[in-house]
Amino acid sequence: MKQPLGFIGLGLMGAPMAMRLLNAGYPLHVYNRTKEKAQALIDSGGVWNESPANVARNVHIVFTMVTDDDALRTVADEIQSTLNGGCIHIDCSTVSPLLTATLEQEYVSSGRYFLHSPVLGSVPQATDGSLLMFIGGSDVAFQKTESLLKILCAKFWRFPKAEQASNMKLIMNSFIGGMIATLAQALTFAHHTGIEGNTLLEVLHHSALNSSMYQTKGKAILANNFTPRFYLENLLKDMNLFRSAGVYYSSPTPVADTVHQLLETAVKAGLGKEDYSAVIKILQERSNK
Questions:
Q1: What pairs with residue 47 in β-bridges?
Q2: How far does Cα 248 stand from its chain's mean position?
Q3: Which of 182, 190, 134, 181 has its CA nearest to residue 162?
Q4: Over pLDDT 90: what percentage of the chain?
Q5: What is the band of 1 on the pLDDT scale with cuts at 50, 70, 90?
Q6: pLDDT digits (tens, 9 = 90+) for 29-50
Q7: Calpha distance 170→173 (Å, rounded)
Q8: pLDDT > 70: what percent of the chain?
């Protein structure tokens, strides 16, 4: 029988990642702040636990995928209260490098392990196991968990320290912010100049400027489909993390500063729970005034 695992945080990304581990034959202890999000996993054989501390008590390896620094700090405190010596906490959230560096030190000092393994991709990639993963932390912990991580991702990159994986993830999400702002700007400009949006996407497709993100999000925007794959409010959170890290490392972030303003306006307009591509609605609103 395979060793039991734990998974805490069953939102848009966490739920399909947890399901992959369960479908691979691993007994799975699960927890989420709202139990209904765990129901599909429970129905498939996952074991509901009443707290993160209880999950950690029952396993040697526990995964987390939570929203922000505050959530991870709270969950990590509970995990550390019951996780046995030599056991491993793998966090896949997008959070501050200062927090992951702190957690790595805390776990090491108490004879346990912390890996930060944030992922790049969305719900389809989490579902089919084609995520990209950045794994920072102990070689010992990585060797013990590599086969599990490969269930979740198509490719990974290793970093010696947890915060280096955190920073790579923030760099990638800064691209997401810059690219969606550019796409929204381009589609809005094309509309006002009589150029069909599909023509713009077709030209991009045949050029060196193309990306799958431009095509996927561009088509969704033209279809007025803003079903969330990545919440706009979470992209704003990540841009803020990137900007704060830039201050800490004395690295300027002028593009992120500009994108932040646009995303912040969108969240204030009530678009936070829509897909991040809904940022185009702010440009459309401005252009109609």
A1: 29
A2: 22
A3: 134
A4: 99
A5: confident
A6: 999 999 999 999 999 999 999 9
A7: 5
A8: 100
Q: Beta 88-91 vs 28-31: how paired, if at all?
A: unpaired
Instruction: Give the whole-angstrom CA distance, residue 142 versus residue 158.
Output: 9
Give the residue from 227, 233, 287 showing the smallest Cα distance to 265.
233
End-to-end CA distance of the chain: 64
Residues 153/165, Cβ–Cβ less than 8 Å? no
- pLDDT (mean) for 72-91: 98
Separation of alpha carbons 125 and 123, rounded Å: 5
**pLDDT at res. 287:** 85
Residue type, position 189, single letter: F
109 pLDDT above the threshold of 80: yes
Domains of the chain: 5-160 (3.40.50.720), 167-287 (1.10.1040.10)
Beta carbons of 275 and 227 less than 8 angstroms apart:
yes
pLDDT in tens, 178-230: 999 999 999 999 999 999 999 999 999 999 999 999 999 999 999 999 999 99
Model pLDDT for residues 148-163, shown as the tens digit of each residue: 999 999 999 999 999 9
Look-up of token digits 């074991």: 47
